[in-house]
Amino acid sequence: VNLLRYGAEMQAFTVRLGQxxxxxxxxxxxxxxxLQDSIDNLLIGPLSNLNFFEQQRLAEQQFEELAQAALEGxxxxxxxxxxxxxxxxxxxxxxxxxxxxxxxxxxNRVIAVQEQAQRAAEQHANEQEQxxxxxxxxxxLYNQAIQAVAEAIADGTITSAEIERIRSAYDAxxxxxxxxxxxxxxxxxxxxx
Length: 193
Prior knowledge:
With 193 residues, the protein is mainly α. The protein has helices at residues 2-43, 52-71, 75-96, 101-154, 160-178, 182-192.
């Protein structure tokens, strides 16, 4: 019994350790983003030692990098995209004016990318809502499966009908979990292991 308690305590400790490490990593990632924003503001803007042409090219490059990340699903990139687009357009307007073909191409690109990112964000939101609903369904089905097991062992004997009910309940959990994508696959793997 002491060995089991020790094992449970060690498991709880390692979980806490992992959570603290994940929290620290998140803080450092936040610092990386803050420092990168500071560098970007020094390279593009009134304090920059770069000329307008170099600043505009850098702003365009940063916008395109964020656009790629946003279209791949990065919520951070999606959040930074409007400011990067604005900065790119301001510098383009300073270089070429806001009535020329260069500015027209730049603004059309910024708008198109932001519309694509908006659609991607909407799609990701819909997917997450579906996963949340499936997770709730899995929870309810799992509870039913546990109840089937409890009822089966309550009288000390398990009939073939009860075994089939348990199997059917767990199959329902697995089927619903499969609709959750990778998170559901992990859950099914845990239930099977």
